[in-house]
Amino acid sequence: VTRGCPNNCGFCGVSAFRRVYDGLGRFYRIRSVENTIQELEHARRVRPRLRRVRFDDELFVPKRAWIEEFCREYPARVGLPFDILTSPKVLDAWTVDRLADAGLDMVYLGVQTTSAANRQRYDRTVPDAEVRACVQRLHARGIRPVVQVLIDDPDSTLDEQLALLEVLLALPRPYDLLIYSLCHWPGTARTRALIAEGTITDADVEGGTDKVLRQFNADFSVDRKPAERLMLAFAAGAEIGIPVVNIGPGGKADVEEDFERQTDLMAKMADRAAEHGVTLCCKAHVGASIYNT
Known about the structure:
Elements (H helix, E strand, L loop, with lengths): L1 E2 L9 H8 L8 E2 L2 H14 L6 E3 L8 H14 L4 E5 L6 H10 L1 E9 L2 H8 L5 H13 L3 E8 L6 H13 L5 E6 L7 H8 L14 H5 L10 H15 L3 E4 L8 H20 L3 E4 L11
Parallel strand pairs: 3-4, 4-5, 5-6, 6-7, 8-9
Antiparallel strand pairs: 1-2
């Protein structure tokens, strides 16, 4: 439906395109409702088994007049359930109600991280409370929320990661969770900042690496800090019904600083595991900070 995006999020490749096309005309464009509906009517004619529609815009149309016309025409002329990608910032009660009546049954909701980290790194301004309110509105209309978050920013701290976990745990359930790994797209504000501070090099930027082909959706194949891996493990365990996550103690035997650091960290992570409904278990190991019981 749209080309470009009205937002300018620092991590997103679209922000780099905005700079490329600067001065060459309107960057953000919206097709008319009539043009959109005609394409979908054609799709129904040539694909009679078509069962649903996904609007894969960077941000589904945030204009009320367009939404109003769409919600009048779509049910009458297309009539299939549909899903959209959008931000909590634009899904107010008016918009949710009208889209739900038109057939919206699933929303991919770009949250990324906590509001503080979003403002600091990505030029995004969506308060955590607004995310919760948006998920509540979707539940009230029977719409399935799919919450999208972003991990693996090199400057992210454990405190920030735990704060993001708190935000997710505070959201009304049920919801699906999609975890993406930050990819360094050429020319974005975030990529340029990380290169300038010496955190990454050109070899870490897409084109010099193929990370996007391996880690667009985050999994355990990337070398992450232990706490980051544990957060993924807790989420996975809760999703597929694994009740216990087992870890080694880390550190070195008979080094008091290692023992105190590792036990403090395990205590924090055990609390996070419990919030997911799983148990964190530590296995003593010869030569590690906990080597007997």
